[in-house]
Write a structure and sequence with these properties.
This protein is mostly helical. The protein contains ten helices and two strands, in the order E-H-H-H-E-H-H-H-H-H-H-H.
């Protein structure tokens, strides 16, 4: 289930706060206005939009906003819960048959799990199930890559358009060399476009693209667990063996946590038996 990821807006906000802190501590409150230049903003954002329109088609451009929103969401993936789900499915399948698993799917929200289990219920061969579900992973990875590429390209183009704005400012500055008093202010304005472009690239676009790549890796990892679980259930593996097999996907920290939990549960059962 998707939830709001507060780390992305917090990180972006914190980055801008650090920039403002650097400005305020060196230039004071009055110096903030000297870092605001409308023409520089227009050059960077307008040039960036123009470059993206040249690079991508209209349908890909429309993906930008939808893909960007994904960086502000998080999908809770609990590997242990996935393992327990397939252990439960395996136990029921061995006890009541594969057809009984359809009732278990009523409480499952993930369509990928539902699809895999229904394929198993229909008696599809394990190799075919693996091919079907793996093809879906490949398609997902390609879709995510295409959407993420737009953000990555924005991160590449933003500093370049910042430099273009700086060059424009430098040309205008060199045309007024006869007036030395204007050189400093015009030089500062020229450099602002580079600041804007670099800030957008390294605080917004590239970090967002990195987060989207991490989200894709996590989703693929979860789907690989699902494939192994579905095939294990379909082939009638012993639930304990299936649990051990899927536990290979757990991190060492999670394994230690599970062992501690199982040990505690065993002690509680022992204490309850002694009291009885």
């Amino acid at each position: 289930m998707s939830k709001r990821d507060f780390l992305t807006p917090i990180g972006i906000t914190l980055g801008f706060i650090m920039v403002m802190f650097g400005i305020l501590t060196n230039a004071g409150l009055d110096g903030v206005t000297s870092f605001m230049q409308v023409s520089s903003v227009v050059i960077v954002l307008g040039g960036l939009a123009a470059a993206l329109l040249v690079n991508f088609n209209f349908n890909e451009i429309k993906l930008t906003f939808r893909v960007s929103k994904e960086a502000f969401k998080k999908n809770d993936m609990n590997v242990r819960e996935l393992i327990q789900l397939f252990v439960r499915l395996s136990e029921r399948a061995r006890r009541e048959g594969l057809l009984a698993l359809e009732a278990e799917l009523e409480d499952v929200e993930d369509p990928y799990i539902k699809k895999g289990v229904l394929l198993a219920v229909d008696g599809i061969e394990p190799d075919v199930i693996n091919d079907i579900l793996s093809a879906e992973i490949t398609a997902l990875e390609e879709r995510h890559y295409r959407g993420r590429t737009i953000i990555e390209k924005a991160g590449e183009y933003a500093p370049a358009w910042g430099m273009i704005g700086t060059l424009i400012g430098l040309v205008l500055m060199l045309q007024s060399l006869t007036d030395p008093e204007t050189l400093g202010p015009k030089m500062a304005v020229a450099l602002l476009t580079t600041l804007y472009g670099t800030l957008l690239a390294n605080l917004v676009f590239l970090p967002m693209a990195g987060k989207l790549a991490n989200k894709t890796d996590q989703e693929i990892f979860a789907k690989q667990i699902i494939i192994e679980g579905v095939i294990g259930v379909q082939s009638g593996q012993n639930p304990k063996i299936l649990e051990e097999k899927l536990s290979a996907f757990l991190s060492e920290e999670d394994k230690l946590r599970v062992e501690a939990s199982e040990k505690q549960e065993a002690e509680q059962v022992k204490e309850a038996a002694n009291e009885a």
